[in-house]
Amino acid sequence: MKPRNHDLRAPIFTASWDLCAWLLKKARAQPHDLLARALAEEALRLLDTVTLALKNVDRENALADADLILVRLRLRLRLAVETDFLTDRQGQFALRQADDIGRQPGGWQKSL
Q: 20 to 30 Å CA-CA from 60: which of 29, 70, 94, 108?
């Protein structure tokens, strides 16, 4: 169930929420897998950071942090495919989501 708060209906939040929920479900299936935990933790950090930016809590730094989190998340997603934690199709899906999320803060930062 997605949050109902009006401020949190921004496309960047929705995409971050969806990716986070998807990765948490994947990680839950492999609770002792180090990479699964790392993916889940990065996804949660991303969601937290995007939420703070939307709530205008140090927005500029939050957006910069989101960009760094996405760099780490993309790296871990590629590793997840390489090590067969994710299938090629799952990895492509997750990387497309991450790329979509990654394009949004850049435009947002430029508008600040």
A: 94
